Amino acid sequence: MADNTTEHKWTMIVDLDKCTGCQACVVACSAENNIPTPSEDEILRGRGNQWIRIERYWEGEYPNVKARFLPVFCQQCGNAPCEPVCPVYASYHSEQENLNVQVYNRCVGTRYCGNNCPYRVRIFNYFAPHFDEPLEQQLNPDVTVRSPGVMEKCTFCIQRIRRGRETANAENRPLEDGEVVPACVQACPADALVFGDKYDENSRVAQMVPNERQFKLLEHMGTEPAVYYLKGGETHVGE
Amino acid sequence: MTNITRRNFLKISAAGTATAILAGCSQETERWVTLEPYVRAPEEQLAGVPNYYATTCRQCPAGCGVIVRIMNGRAVKLEGNPEHPVNRGKLCARGQAGLQLLYNPDRVTGAVRQDERGSRKFDSVAWNDAINTIYEQIDAAGSGVGVWLGSTTSGHLVDLFTRFTEAIGAPAPVRYDLYAGFHGYNALQSATGALLDGAGLPTYDLGHADTVFSFGADFLGTWLSSTGYGVEFGRFRSQPFGQRGYLVQFEPKMSITGAKADRWVPLRPGTEALVAQAIARIIADEQLGSAERAERAATLAGDVDVEEAAAACEMPVEGLVELARAFAAADHPLAIPGSAVAGANNAAEAIAAIQALNLIAGTVGQPGGMSVTPALPDAPLAAPPASTFADATALIERMNAGDVKVLLVHGANPAFDLPAGAGFVEALANVDLVVSFNPLVDETSVHADYILPDRVYLEGWGYSVATPAFGGVPVISSQQPVVGPLYDVRSTGDVLLTVARGIPAAAQALPWTDEVAFIKEMITALPTGAAGGQDEEVRWARYLQHGGWWPVEAAAETPAVIAEAAPSVPPTTYQGDEGEYPYHLHLFMSVLLGDGSGANQPWLQSTPDPMTTVSWQTWVEINPATAKELDLEHGDIVEITSPQGAITLPVYVFPAIRPDTVAIPIGQGHHDLGRYAKDRGANPLALVGLETDASGNHLAWSNVRVNIRKTDDKRALPRLESTIETDEEVHIPF
């Protein structure tokens, strides 16, 4: 009997030495997760965030200047600051997947979770999503289109995880490593993003960490993110 | 389906009852009546279960394979095709956004006629009437037909139009657009052809290289095949035994490739070839690397004074020596000439001087070296590569001379892509009939008499010869309709075949009933590829199923080196007096909008540019020191003037650009092309003149000088990065 009911620890590894900042993941995420397109006006108001964003940091001054890219999305914290503050349990921890999940139809829009998130990856829907006809035909039927007044964030493409597990269950076999990948991982040309179940010790992510280049974002806050970053540039010492 | 009224329904039901009663009298098994639903879903569709089909991306000319996820007849996601040798399962931002071309709200929904050109008043017209008119005019025009295609036009259309023009005695189609011109496909191919025997478009095995010198090639952004090179870059960074490649990027403004480089050299514009020559000279003089390398360098290095070269490119001699040492000592060094080199007025010689480094390395055709896109097997399918700027101007001259009675435009937007001085729009006045096959009303279609919208690539048939190819295999990428056409659009191939039927010479040359018959004949003439299949039908099915044709194994042949002497490179000269126009203009293609055809897709518009994080706008990048000198800050509107024209746009103070250079992305500044693109940003092509290289074949895009003038206006730039430091507007936290 296939054992797909046990816990998973879905984990992402971001190799900053390979991330080229090309934005393929950003558009792939918008397409997969029905994210409304921010208008110029909304971006000017600082509401242009997507579920995944590529932060760009400058270091030094011309001519010894460097640019670094940092893809940031929900860190799927093991000890998530967004969860305990939700008065209606819309933001809670899925024990099976070890993910922070957001129940859209429970959310009442207090925005506490967004306020408490140190990574600034939660996005509030100030307006009803609008798609000029016939652009609504591109919407992914596996994912809801969120209504106004609701918080949303990266889900590690939980719809793909669910679909993958259902397929594996139907075929009476365990879920294989690499069978389920979020849209961003699938698109990434340079293979900078690696995704898998860290509890499966043969998975690629389990093999890649611990790594001498690894770090986590705002690690000192004790949020225990499920996303590992591998330092890039001259800090790469080979592996 | 006919209308079913209540009365009709009752009639049918009554007839059905009668049949059932009659059936009851015969054999028992026939008593069972199958219930037929009123609406029958297509056989392969189940609610909630996706289907996947392979096709080819046409958002740029690279020819990546995509797998389209179809849910109940709707295309909902584009993914890379894991089997495809070009993109190997990956897909860039532009590729992903292809859905928004298919479902674009501003598509032309049927054949339309415009009585007054430029009026933007389109009347719908019956397809047969439109085709008939075009047939009559083409028939009357004889050889006075001009065809203008783009580099994203499907290969089968290029082949069909080529056969058509040949049959009626007209000059071959021009295949020229910004992709072809700006990245210098033709310049790269012809300059490499002077060094290697029978060369196609050069391709670089980045994944196995250890030291890469990129002379302005933004191969991770927009250059030639960004997804293919993105995959290669991933491999470059994690090679066996912990090796990690070393990338040096020479460019006046940091591109995303520059951001990923281990060393970014803000080189003086126009001195790329000089650096390459100096490196070759140093390898020869100091006998660096292996004896063979030093020997080859001695023949190919040319007569360059290293100290003079160092002064001209503003680099210390020691720096050049260090680079030469690194290059000569590497196992698999690689030198790549980029768009700025291909757009210089010494393009051919400069490319040759940079490619000479690859010859010196002696890695041509080997892992980690330069090779050329292999030729297709002997087949009737040709899909000729990009034309030159000279071919494009020749067509404009024919138009001006009144030799073109009918102009057919497909997949290109010359009214937007060419510098205004080329006079394309003015020349249209001398053409009796202008027909555009483009799916949206773009700047060229506005001047057309008829728009006969082709099916967009997710609805249509085609094939694409991937350029450049990777891994030494030639690739013909397959394109098939993955969804039914959304509107009353017709494939241009079928329109052309219909027109050809009435013209005896053309009818003989194009005997196919429809475009699918043509494509099938071309594809099944190929030898069995990696997808397998002996029988013709099986081969065809597998070709469509797996996303194209490519051989199982790479051809082992290495192109022979024919270069015997060093290329002599004439100095780069600039349009515009240095006193009057003190800054170099560095144009680059937007990573998201490409040549500007992506500007009609909201995903691409709203996604931030990786380096500046600006979206929805055009900006000009200015070094902080220059900005201080001119009293400029983020968002100040400036007027950029060149000898050819002027544009106004906001400033982005960019830390990684030379103080004597300003950089502007290409892609915005559309007057048409739908609601998302229209009246947004500025088109920097207005600043480019008509100067070409010595051969007259290639437009000098990168030899322009400009001036900056501050205006009193200011506007906030929509950007993702925090604007708190710059005191602009404080972000709302989430």
What can be said about this structure in brief?
The complex is a heterodimer of chains A (239) and B (734). Chain A has helices at residues 24-32, 40-44, 112-116, 158-170, 183-187, 204-208; strands spanning 10-15, 53-59, 66-72, 91-94, 99-102, 123-124, 151-152, 193-197, 214-215, 227-230. Chain A has 239 residues and is an alpha+beta fold.
Question: Can you put this structure into words, describing what you see?
Answer:
- The complex is a heterodimer of chains A (239) and B (734).
- Chain A is built from 6 helices and 10 strands, in the order βααββββαββααβαββ.
- Chain A is of the alpha+beta class and 239 residues long.
- Chain A has a single domain, classed as Alpha-Beta Plaits, CATH 3.30.70.
- Chain A has a 4-stranded mixed β-sheet with strand order 8-1-10-9. Chain A has a two-stranded antiparallel sheet with strand order 2-3. Chain A has a two-stranded antiparallel sheet with strand order 4-5.
- In chain A, a hairpin with a 4-residue loop joins strand 4 and strand 5.
- Chain A starts with 9 loop residues before the first strand and ends in a 9-residue tail after the last strand.
- The relative contact order of chain B is 0.15.
- Among the domains of chain B are: 40 residues, no CATH class; 160 residues, Dimethylsulfoxide Reductase, domain 2, CATH 3.40.228.10; 132 residues, Barwin-like endoglucanases, CATH 2.40.40.20.
- In chain B, helix 4 packs across helix 19 and helix 11 packs antiparallel against helix 15.
- With 734 residues, chain B is of the alpha/beta class.
- In chain B, strands 5-4-16-15-14-6-7 form a 7-stranded mixed β-sheet.
- The chains are: A alpha+beta (239), B alpha/beta (734).
